[in-house]
């Protein structure tokens, strides 16, 4: 019987409103009214919002632009970057109109509601400083735009129509990157019995695991007296595998240990997930039912050995990610997140750090399913400011509440293997900061005794002196490759994490000559070179981290800054306009891989071949000039040919970090035609080859979708890579043609992005220029299944069209 009811519950959770007799979860995604500005009476039920914009949530009000250099222009010295004198920084927060106040209003009714029920209003993120009103009355407020939070609104809700009003305010000078704006994550209402399991009241751990059995400990907090709890565990195929009933409560908590025979362990390679269904009874009456997905896995951090997952020493091959999704802004979209993770998986990446704030639930769900370890971070500031209106304004009142919510909401995700209480917080200096570090770490430990806590430290010398670094569970170093050895000796933990590494800068498909390794290099076109030799004053090129990762067993891994470009922080062009997004990404803002992608892939992806040549071979005007060629490959050596002439064999060697990880032909003279590389295996036998050809004039548009079949849910996306080729089908790597997009049928044009950090074209408008011969068009499904057609046209070009499908 229980199983039948459970099935019923599961099937219905797939729709917007999920019913069981016990719980209703209603996602407030449609029928929102939105208006920018401040309105004194907008909280009132009868406020006239008929002229307001109709929108759906998740929503980012700022992503529609226009870009404007005066928005949130900051006159600052970026101390973290070693600056001493304040200068004007345009584009630091993306130059998109995210500042100011705005209101959201939604009228909804709750099916199954009776006034003896308990009602929870849950926000998964609201940017920022939300003030929340229900039926004309203030329900509560929060501060940090990245936090998940909820209120018990039982006393505010009524039968029939309810009116929810939310005011959000983003101050200027509140961020170091584009924070987005609005209700950018889900909002939902949960209706349940008074006697029920608390919000985020389930905590599942796996304290004992061997080959034959695992002990699954389940703590369940519930609002009940003299009740009982049945917890049943199901495997990934839905088979019931064990169950336990208890009526012993400790305070308001049940504590169960359930045995799983022959456990299948969760890991990035085998992301196996179980499910626990908790049923709460009073007598024989079932009062509540909650389903929680979990994994069985063991993590250990040990001196000199480092990090082990399920008993195997494992290094983090990780990337840091900001929360924006490029052309979508910050509005959460699962298809966009899934695409990011698919790209990262192919690179061989096994871990993500949510820099510098709470990850979305969707991202964690995908990491559980697709197999990524997760470092979940909380803050970029504690009590001392980095920016005038940053989190320091809220720290004393909110830090504990924000951490409690982060941990309680996400602790059952097997992907999370570490918490971070902060990134490069100025509190690294001074005694008060040491106390704060301890205080925050203790809160994490109290809420979750199973995972360690780190801080990404940039003031490494100061933290060696003060004891700050010594007290952390995991000492995280941001950059500072020259201090790893000293930190390892001075800190007591016996291992070091590269919590943030590299910060190499490059623009996809852009190459600069002469090819030299340089810091803070700037060019007139506000682009950075893709020879991957340019970094910031505080940062370094990837190879320097690789040396530490490979040679020091006590370095437990790295999180590269960053997996994808993000909006804002356009270093090294913080002072240049137009420049409004980052250059740090391994892939660009459109998700298109830069050359660096293949450098990481050649190390990290152990199953597939990598053989990548750079630069492109279209250098009209450079005939006879030195045009170095680099090859990123998992093979040790290769021979290069220009129009059939050998340029010699290069072999990886330890003479410099670059020579160890790249094959480089520094003296090649450009002549148009054909560039070919032949790679050799360890025995010197040719095993793979790759060729680049000089292209003629752009002739024809080519469309290449990442997915051809979408879900007809009104949210799913196909990312179509658009490029142009010449008459012979050779890709044109420098094309900048202005293209136009049209979508017909059961889909709509959502956005486009070309990865150019200096472009001021808006993503949602159906036209954009190619950048280095490419861009990406996002096609979104509607709620109806059927055929979708994308048309791409450009002056003087043979147009492209593509058929996609969407199904229920
Ligand atoms: C780090 C910081 C990041 C980003 C990065 C750019 O110091 O933690 O948020 O600013 O520098 O290199």
TrEMBL record:
Residues of the Glycosyl hydrolases family 2 sugar binding domain: 26-172
Keywords of the record: Glycosidase, Hydrolase
One Pfam family linked to the record: Glyco_hydro_2_N
Boundaries of every DUF4982 domain copy: 624-688
Residue ranges of every copy of the Glycoside hydrolase family 2 catalytic domain listed in the record: 304-530
Ranges for domain Glycoside hydrolase family: 703-802
Domain Glycoside hydrolase family 2 immunoglobulin-like beta-sandwich: 202-297
Domain of life: Bacteria
InterPro entries attached to this UniProt entry: Beta-gal/glucu_dom_sf, DUF4982, Galactose-bd-like_sf, GH, GH2_Domain-Containing, Glyco_hydro2_dom5, Glyco_hydro_2, Glyco_hydro_2_cat
PANTHER family xrefs: BETA-GALACTOSIDASE, BETA-MANNOSIDASE
Family: Belongs to the glycosyl hydrolase 2 family.
Name of the molecule in the record: DUF4982 domain-containing protein
Organism of this sequence: Thalassobellus suaedae
């Amino acid at each position: 019987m229980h199983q039948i009811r459970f099935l019923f519950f599961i099937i219905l959770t797939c729709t917007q409103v999920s019913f069981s007799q016990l719980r209703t979860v209603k996602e407030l995604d449609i029928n929102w009214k939105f208006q920018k500005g401040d309105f004194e009476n907008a909280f009132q039920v009868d406020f006239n919002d008929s002229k307001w914009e109709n929108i759906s949530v998740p929503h980012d009000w700022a992503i529609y632009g226009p870009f404007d250099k005066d928005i949130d222009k900051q006159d600052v010295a970026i101390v973290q970057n070693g600056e001493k004198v304040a200068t004007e920084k345009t584009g630091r927060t993306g130059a998109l109109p995210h500042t100011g106040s705005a209101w959201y209003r939604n009228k909804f009714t709750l099916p199954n509601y009776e006034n003896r029920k308990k009602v929870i209003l849950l926000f998964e993120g609201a940017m920022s400083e939300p003030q929340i009103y229900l039926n004309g009355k203030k329900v509560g407020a929060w501060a940090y735009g990245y936090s998940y939070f909820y209120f018990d609104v039982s006393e505010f809700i009524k039968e029939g129509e309810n009116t929810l009003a939310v005011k959000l305010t983003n101050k200027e000078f509140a961020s170091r990157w584009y924070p987005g704006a609005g209700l950018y994550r889900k909002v939902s209402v949960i209706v349940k019995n008074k006697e029920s399991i608390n919000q985020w009241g389930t905590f599942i751990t796996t304290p004992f695991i061997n080959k034959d059995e695992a002990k699954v400990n389940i703590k369940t907090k519930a609002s009940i007296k003299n009740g009982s709890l049945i917890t049943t565990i199901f495997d990934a195929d839905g088979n019931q595998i064990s169950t336990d009933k208890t009526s012993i409560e400790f305070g308001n908590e049940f504590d169960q240990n359930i045995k799983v025979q022959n456990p299948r362990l969760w890991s990035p390679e085998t992301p196996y997930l179980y499910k626990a269904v908790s049923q709460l009874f009073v007598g024989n009456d079932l009062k509540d039912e909650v389903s929680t997905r979990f994994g069985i896995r063991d993590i250990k951090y040990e001196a000199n050995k480092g990090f082990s997952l399920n008993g195997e020493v494992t290094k983090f091959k990780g990337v840091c990610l900001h929360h924006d999704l490029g052309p979508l802004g910050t509005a959460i979209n699962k298809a966009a997140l899934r695409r990011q993770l698919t790209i990262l998986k192919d690179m061989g990446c096994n871990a993500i750090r949510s820099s510098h704030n709470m990850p979305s639930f969707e991202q964690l769900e995908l990491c559980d399913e697709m197999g990524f370890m997760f470092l979940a971070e909380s803050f970029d500031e504690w009590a001392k400011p980095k920016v005038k209106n940053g989190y320091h304004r809220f720290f004393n009142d909110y830090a504990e509440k924000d951490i409690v919510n982060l941990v309680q909401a996400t602790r059952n995700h097997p992907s999370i293997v570490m918490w971070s209480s902060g990134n490069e917080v100025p509190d690294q200096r001074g005694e008060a900061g040491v106390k704060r570090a301890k205080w925050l770490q203790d809160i994490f430990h109290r809420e979750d005794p199973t995972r360690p806590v780190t801080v990404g430290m940039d003031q490494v010398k100061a933290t060696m002196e003060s004891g700050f670094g010594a007290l952390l569970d995991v000492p995280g170093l941001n950059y500072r490759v020259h201090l790893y050895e000293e930190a390892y000796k001075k800190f007591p933990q016996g291992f070091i994490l590269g919590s943030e590494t590299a910060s190499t800068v490059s623009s996809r498909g852009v190459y600069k000559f002469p090819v030299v390794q340089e810091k803070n290099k700037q060019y007139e076109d506000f682009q950075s070179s893709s020879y991957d030799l340019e970094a910031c004053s505080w940062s370094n090129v990837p190879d320097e981290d690789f040396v530490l990762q490979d040679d020091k067993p006590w370095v437990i891994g790295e999180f590269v800054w960053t997996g994808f470009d993000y909006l804002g922080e356009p270093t090294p062009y913080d002072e240049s306009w137009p420049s409004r997004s980052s250059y740090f990404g391994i892939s660009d803002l459109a998700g298109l891989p830069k050359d660096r992608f293949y450098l990481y892939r050649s190390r990290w992806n152990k199953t597939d071949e990598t053989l990548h040549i750079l630069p492109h071979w279209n250098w009209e005007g450079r005939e006879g000039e030195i045009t170095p060629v680099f090859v990123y490959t998992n093979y040790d050596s290769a021979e290069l040919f220009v129009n059939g002439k050998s340029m010699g064999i290069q072999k990886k060697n330890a003479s410099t970090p670059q020579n160890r990880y790249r094959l480089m032909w520094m003296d090649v003279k450009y002549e148009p035609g054909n560039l070919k590389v032949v790679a050799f295996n360890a025995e010197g036998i040719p095993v793979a080859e790759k060729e680049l050809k000089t292209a003629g004039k752009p002739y024809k548009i080519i469309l290449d979708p990442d997915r051809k079949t979408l879900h007809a849910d009104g949210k799913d996306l196909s990312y179509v890579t658009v490029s142009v080729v010449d008459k012979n089908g050779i890709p044109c790597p420098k094309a900048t043609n202005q293209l136009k997009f049209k979508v017909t049928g059961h889909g709509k044009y959502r956005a486009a992005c070309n990865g150019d950090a200096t472009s001021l074209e808006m993503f949602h408008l159906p036209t954009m220029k190619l950048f280095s011969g490419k861009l990406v068009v996002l096609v979104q499904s509607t709620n109806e299944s059927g055929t979708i057609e994308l048309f791409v046209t450009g002056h003087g070009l043979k147009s492209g069209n593509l058929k996609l499908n969407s199904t229920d």
